[in-house]
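Dear U.,

For the methods section draft, I wanted the exact inputs and outputs in one place so we can describe them consistently. I've listed the two proteins in the order they'll appear in the manuscript figures. Please don't edit the token lines directly; just add comments below if something needs changing.

First protein:
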Amino acid sequence: MSREFDPVAMEVFSNRLLSITEDMGNTLIRSSFSTNIKERRDCSVGLFDARGRLIAQASHVPLHLGSLMGGVQAVLKTYATGDMEAGDAFICNDPYLAGGTHMPDISIVSPVVIDGAVQFFTANIAHHSDVGGSVPGSISGAARTVFEEGIRIPVIRVASRGVVSDDIMRLVCSNTREPEERALDLNVQIATNARGTALLESLSDRTGLGKVLGAVDDLLAYTNRRLRNRIALLADGSYSCTSYLDDDGQGGDPVAIAATVHIAGDALTLDFTGTSGQARGAMNVPESALRATVYYSIKTLLDPNLPPNGGMFEAIAIDAPDGCLVNPRHPAAVGARSITCNKVARAIFGAFAPLLSDDSVMAAGHDSIPAIVFSGERRGGGPFVYLETVGGGSGARADSDGMDAVHVHLTNTSNLPAEALEHEYPLMVDEYGLVEDSGGAGQHRGGVGIARQIRAMQDDIVFSIRSDSHVIGAPGVFGGAEGATASLIKNADGPDREELSSKVSHIEMKAGDSMRLETAGGGGYGAPETRAPSALAADIRDGLVSRENAEQDYGGPFVEQAVLTAEGEMG
């Protein structure tokens, strides 16, 4: 630890590795066939050394770090590097057998052989819209075991010396509702790793393998020391916060997620003692997903510019009681783990709040990742499964309102444009907009949620959703108000309007039926009566806050002035 590092050299080398991951990511996105990968970018890539240490991850989806790490480690446990050859590729997805986080995220791991030995691994993960199981989309908040959640893939060699195994591909793809699309995307994943392999070989040729390996060791050591320096600046002690899920996937009472951060010198422990027992439904978080959540949270809170590699992991310990929500026992269902992971991040951020300056504290966001799934037959024949995760409002900060209509924390995918959706599927987007009055009031307002209403254009469309924050809103900070909760309504504009729960599966829709999801807003920052009248006027003018809610939530002598200003600007 007494070794000196050149931080500029470390950043330069880290970005050289990141440029390889960005190239891989672009290859994966541009070459894929499913809308979930090519349009929504629900995928990630990473580079690892021969020991399985993460050396770079592209800035795609933070939660995917779990499956990337878990997949590489599972490959190393299953196969000796001496038995691997150039052109090999391994496939896996299972959270209990292969370090995955849920079944739709399929990982491909490929060894990089240089000078006759494995020196690195390229890895990528893609969320496939369906991998079988009890419901289209393979995710049901109410699932009770992993056996309901699709095909389980342990680590298997899917390609040998550059030749893909047709037998294994048929086995995997035949267990899904869209076998042709699965096969096309899996082949793209294998090719993506081959692209990364070529780039790593080129880097080693230009720089020299010994220098590259030495730079990797230096980069990991530098990252570790840099994070420890940040931790050492914090006050020793223990700090706790508890967040809640609406339910465990099977209804019932809210489910607690307790996080305590212990600081001792330059070491940090995240302790989840006090968290509820594992869920009856699919809200459980496997180990690899919990690790990704913790690492994301610490990096974000303490050093957002920290190089994205495994050097930070040694400074962080994680303690989760066996059999709890964030350390479940086999065969607990885990399909909806991203919702829980976002609430874990909320608890970690809350636990850190006393350690941070007021201007670094952020109110809670919607902290959920609702996934809607429509399935049926395409107009020209053949099955389809359309999956989309929908954003909401982020929490307000000391210097700004929360962002409107965004993914938060562990997820970072794009929306599916209405034009692409309507072109691909027998569906119509009735409305895609912002939810008025959903952001928590405050000196700075919480971000507002999304209204997404989709109509079936033919009979026999099947709908499922797993969501949360329909009961418990996002808390504000320093006097800021709580964000509004989410809702799901069938046929919102008709006489047969029906409000549904946050986790329903296999709802059959007829032509003309619609589903309307309104996602939750973020919490506010600071007392509402201290908000600038001009900012409130802009909210009213832009349709983010109604006059009625402005008068109710903000009060004070400036509200009428703000309303009159907004009405005047609107003519």
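Second protein (the one for the lower panel):
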Amino acid sequence: MTELLVVIVAALAVIAAATVVGPRLGIASPLVLVAIGVAASFLPVFGEAHIEPEWVLEGILPPLLYSTAVSMPAMNFRREFGAIGGLSVLLVVASALVLGVFFMLAMPGIGFGWGVALGAIVSPTDAVATSIIKQMAVSKRVVALLDGESLLNDATALVVLGTATAATFSLWDAAGTFAYSVAVAVVIGWAVGRLNLMVRKPVTDATVNTVISFTVPFMASVPATLLGASGLVAAVVAGIVTGSRAPRDLSPRNRLSDSQNWRTVELVLEGAVFLTMGIQIKTIVMDVRDEHGGIGNAVLVAAGALVLTVLVRAAYVGPLLGVLAWRSRISLSHQPRILEFQEKLSTPEGKRETLDRMSARGRKLSERDLEHFHLRVIRGLATTEYFLREPLGPREGIVVVWAGMRGAVTVAAAQTLREENTPKLPVLVLIAFAVAVMSLLVQGGTIGPLLRRLMPEGAGPDDDGERARVMELMREAAASVPAPTGPTEIVSARRHRLAVLGAQRAALLDARDNGTFDAEVLAKILANLDASQIAIEMRG
């Protein structure tokens, strides 16, 4: 017991040190942790280190993906959903099939089915690994694409893996399994996300509220897994619902407590993933060396697989960017007509004229229907402006390709293979580990210099103009609150200030949901409002 406690305390200290020291050395902290894990694997205490894959897939990944989804701007996710869906499904399937052929040719005896299984293991990008990119100056659309892809592609990879290792293969069965897995996970995740907010809304104790939040990813993932659906997708959906609705349903103090504690959990779990990756490598290498006479061929195959994943990704991302650029041009060509229509709907006379015109054409619309339509017009215009403000060109495409790193999912999925029915199991596991580690070292180690070369200093959107527009919106919201009246001047002023903050928050959240302002700018200003409210409540 004492030995285990020493290991845990040492791991926490190493994670904290790597997080502080890594960036100062110009090295991403995950790479430092992998290296420390490899060095620690030679200590006697880690002589036969093996981490059960279920601990990673069911114990670590759900809270990590949930936390990432909570902080991800929901509007950006919706805007990029088509591209994210393609990267999460089509690219994973294509990569698994191409790699299946490669592994079948490079390792005679495993066959196409097991080749596809190994291809499915190394195909998905990893949310923990792509966290490296968030520490750097990069386009917000690139971050949205990488985040969304890494949150959802695990489900595709695990379904392909299960199908490829099944006794009989059927394309329709695979498609049906995937559709069922995702649909059930979405329903469960949405229900748990809404129930989570309903339960936590009346809880005023921030500590208790945060403790309840720790159960949410498992409340979503466990039932989904038991029903044969994707527990990871369920956790992601619960996180998106929670992140979108929490500013309206939870108090600032509860959300601040949530944010601080979840950042701590994220840091510890991410660090544990990379440390355990490094620690397990020695055991796997020794198994392959003892049973198959050497690791050279396996490492070469892994290097070839990594190169192939990058090439397949580049072949997919290039046309994808072309489609996204074409969609932006189409939206831009429609913008003048939509702007004219928006101006008409912004006046009572224009609304009445539109309703009369629709009625004359035989389409009966209520005023509520017209308001919904007006809202869609506003969101459509905001999306067009977002695409113009954040274009995806060749430089961003290179970043999307090179930042697609492998990590914890690849390592955990490889260890779900069982020895009794898997040919050359130690070799397959070593290849998966080698792909993940080389991806982190090569791609993760070079993404910083690549970004500095591709993205000149000062590049990116100008947030000052955006902040000025947001401040004008806040002034209008404050002006809508009646002046303070009451028997006690101090109490009235306090109530008035809280009412102003509430009106400003509601206006900013409406703007966020409509997409009319940059999500990161709004998040910072909302955090300032929360801080102001907490200070007033504490003084009160």
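Candidate sentences for the figure legend, describing the second protein: The chain has three domains: 49-323+405-454, 325-388, 463-539. Residues 325-388 form one domain.

Thanks,
Y.
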